[in-house]
Design brief:
The chain is an alpha+beta fold. It has a single domain (5-192), classed as Alpha-Beta Complex (Peptide Deformylase). It has 6 helices and 11 strands. The longest helix has 14 residues, at 27-40.
Length: 200
């Protein structure tokens, strides 16, 4: 089932999300719905707060980044080839370490449509979590995969990518962000807006 994505300005996006247990109601269905919602909106990641649930859960599928590096059917970067299979569920994650020299990349967010800005992040990370079967996992990641994880992890901490951009740029975007909050934005996927409290 495709769920509405909550828009910028929704209080749930600013809360620190709570851990869940294996008996969380309808977890399997929720994960399936989150993937379906993410694909419908052409995203590479989706965190539970973005669908109105303040729980420590996000899903990712980095395949689109791998597709970007294909030329005439041949993958030109072996590292990015691995992104094609990087589809995972992260539950109760802890970001243990971030390292390296920060690099900039233009990010967007399904909760903040039509705004894309450069965000600087460290390239390497170590994250521990449990998977959809509540099996403990630990990953060391770099590059695009690390960035996607960092972006989604921020959602669980109540942080948005717009918090990380140049303050002057953020100030210039204030009007546009207010318009999103009011539902005055053209989107091709289901959204729920806080001010109007309407869905579309």
């Amino acid at each position: 089932m495709i769920l509405p994505i909550v828009a910028y300005g929704s209080p749930v996006l600013r809360k620190k999300a709570e851990n869940i247990t294996p008996d969380y109601p309808g977890l399997k269905e929720l994960i399936a719905d989150m993937y379906e919602t993410m694909y419908e909106a052409h995203g590479v990641g989706l965190a539970a707060p973005q669908i109105g649930k303040s729980i420590r859960l996000f899903v990712v599928d980095c395949a689109p980044f791998a597709e970007d590096d294909e030329v005439e059917g041949e993958v030109i970067n072996e590292k990015n080839k691995a992104l094609a299979d990087f589809k995972k569920v992260f539950i109760n994650p802890t970001l243990e370490e971030e390292s390296g020299v920060e690099w900039g990349f233009t990010e967007g967010c399904l909760s903040i449509p039509d705004i894309r800005e450069e965000v600087k992040r460290k390239p390497n990370l170590v994250i521990s979590y449990v998977d959809e079967n509540f099996q403990p996992r630990k990953l060391t990641l770099d590059g695009y995969a690390a960035r996607v994880i960092q972006h989604e992890y921020d959602h669980l901490e109540g942080v948005l990518f717009t918090d990380k951009i140049n303050p002057m740029k953020r100030n210039l975007l204030r009007g546009k962000l207010n318009e999103i909050t009011k539902g005055r934005v053209d989107v091709r996927y289901k959204m729920k807006f806080p001010v109007t409290n309407k869905k579309r």
